[in-house]
Amino acid sequence: MIPTLLGRWQTRLFLLNTVGALITLIFGFLFKDFWTPFVLLEYILWFGFIWDILYNLLQSLRWDRDWPPLFFVGGGVLEALLVWGLVKANFLWAILGLPGLPGVNPGLTFAQFAAHYCTVFIFTLLLMLSLMKVIFLKWRFQGGELF
Question: For residues 33 and 37, what is the distance between their CA atoms, to the nearest angstrom?
Fold first, then answer.
């Protein structure tokens, strides 16, 4: 299956707002802070929508219009680094007159961010590559579109 941009967005929205939300709830209990993990999940969702546009354009340059699944991991690492960079871009927020990325606890450590991001990423990737094809039979033949 070669996902369409709309299919990428629908799949991302579905997985992050179901599986991602459940995992984020667990991290909220672990961190004793529910707000920051859920805000980060939403930043990842919205950044991912933008990232999917670029990813789709890059993918169109390949002759078969498809990537090996290992490229998903590379994209996920890049996404994580860019979101973490936004979390810690104090100079940018100072210019805008903000104390930090809105909604994110300034005391968030890289270990907390990485644990949360990696867990959500691994579970959503595994579900996308396995159970999505079983639960939503037409998903893989409709370019990843759910609706």
Answer: 7
Q: Radius of gyration (Cα) for the chain, nearest Å?
A: 16
Which pair of tokens denotes residue 146?
């759910």
pLDDT of the residue at 117: 97
Distance CA 65, CA 45 (A): 24
Neighbours of 142 (CB within 10 A): 17
State the Cα torsion 88-124-112-50 to the nearest 10°: 10
The Cα–Cα gap between 19 and 116 comes to 12
Measure the N-to-C terminal CA separation of the chain; round to a whole number of Å: 16
**What tens digit of pLDDT does each residue of 67-100 get?**
777 888 888 999 999 999 989 887 788 788 888 7
Sign of the CA dihedral 70, 73, 78, 81? negative
CA 39/CA 49 separation, integer angstroms: 15
Under the banding of pLDDT at 50, 70 and 90, the label for residue 65 is low
Distances from the Cα of 141 to the Cαs of 56, 127, 134, in angstroms?
17, 17, 12
